[in-house]
Design goal:
Blueprint: E1 7-18, E2 24-29, E3 33-39, E4 44-55, H1 58-65, E5 68-76, E6 79-86, E7 101-109, E8 113-118, E9 123-125, E10 129-136, E11 141-154, E12 159-164, E13 168-172, E14 177-182, E15 186-190, E16 195-200, E17 204-209, E18 213-217, E19 225-230, E20 234-239, E21 244-249, E22 256-259, E23 264-269, E24 275-280, E25 286-292, E26 296-301, H2 307-318
Parallel strand pairs: 2-6, 2-8, 3-7, 3-9, 8-10, 9-11, 10-11, 11-12, 11-13, 12-14, 13-15, 14-16, 15-17, 16-18, 17-19, 18-20, 19-25, 20-26, 21-25, 22-26
Antiparallel strand pairs: 1-4, 4-7, 5-6, 21-24, 23-24
Length: about 325
């Protein structure tokens, strides 16, 4: 008997929802990748759901789609909701799950609040203005420059944020966290994943369990920082004109060291020791870094004069009035 011939069959579901200004999109899917693209000036939300499966024929595709419950609703002029779930049955218990692969391609107005949840599959967000709530189990979360706030949760995938003017709250079970420019209060937590915050303008709180953390600060430093890791080291990157108080503690077997030039006045402990308290440029807000099981490293750099540095300072100037 000849083996059956399989081919990838694709089905598309398309809907368009006229919306009022600053709408809210809620999307929940047990499986599927989600791509959100901002469209300046748009007055509608366009949704394309791409359904694919490697099947023998169209009839087999139809059978697989019977396991998918896809609902798209618009309860009011500001709200669009999308929900997709698969129903398991004995028939499918031995087959590849999910029976159909889903990809969501969604165009939204540039100002739009988003609540996106997916069990398996990455979430990709463009340069949206609004409040973002993002969650996934095994895929990554990636955003462009967000004028608003972000709450992101990932179990095993990475979270990467290019920039955000408002508050950031990110946690992962084991995935890495990378944030470019942060204008508001930033809270980052991971159990085992690498944590990096390149340019912080607001308050910083970092918690890492078995994680290495690296945090850079924009001058002038107006908000404090509380950075704690267990089983990992901490690197702090500070501009030479930064004014702050430092309270640094490495593990009992580690030390505090400095690379580059910083106008550091030590008030307690010292470089090469496991504890250091000191002042930069006369002192200011307090930066606390405690590396249980690791070292603390200070890195001095020249003040940023590039376009990147100016963008970071603009984030700081807007952080008090962000969403």
């Amino acid at each position: 008997m000849a083996a059956p011939v399989f081919a990838v069959i694709e089905r598309r579901v398309e809907r368009t929802f006229p919306v009022s200004e600053a709408p809210h999109l809620s999307l929940g899917s047990s499986f599927g990748a989600v791509n959100i693209r901002e469209v300046p000036g748009a007055k509608e939300i366009k949704v394309v759901v791409i359904q694919t499966a490697d099947v023998e024929d169209e009839e087999e595709m139809d059978r697989r789609l019977t396991t998918l419950e896809l609902a798209m609703k618009q309860p009011d002029a500001k709200t669009v909701s999308i929900e997709a779930t698969f129903t398991r049955s004995v028939t499918w218990s031995w087959k590849t799950w999910p029976p159909v692969t889903l990809i969501y391609e969604v165009d939204v107005p540039q100002r739009c609040d988003l609540k996106i949840t997916t069990g398996e599959g990455q979430i990709l967000i463009g340069a949206v203005h609004g409040k973002l709530e993002l969650a996934c189990d095994t895929g990554g979360i990636f955003t462009g420059e967000i004028d608003g706030s972000i709450v992101a949760r990932s179990r095993s995938g990475p979270v990467s944020i290019t920039a955000c003017t408002g508050g950031i709250d990110v946690s992962t079970d084991s995935g890495q966290i990378a944030v470019g420019r942060a204008g508001g209060r930033t809270v980052l937590a991971s159990r085992g994943g690498y944590i990096e915050l390149q340019r912080a303008s607001g308050e910083v709180v970092v918690r890492g369990n078995g994680s290495y953390a690296q945090v850079g600060f924009v001058s002038p430093i107006r908000h404090g920082a509380d950075i704690v890791t267990s089983g990992g080291s901490i690197t702090l990157q500070l501009e030479t004109d930064a004014a702050c108080l430092l309270d640094l503690r490495a593990s009992i077997f580690g030390d505090v060291a400095m690379r580059g030039e910083l106008p550091l006045v030590v008030t307690s402990g010292g470089l090469g020791k496991s504890r250091l308290k000191g002042k930069l440029n006369g002192g200011g807000v307090r930066i606390v870094a405690k590396a249980g099981g690791g070292n603390v490293r200070l890195r001095g750099i020249e003040p940023a004069v590039t376009e990147f540095g100016e963008a970071a300072r603009k984030l700081e100037s807007r952080s008090d009035g962000g969403l």
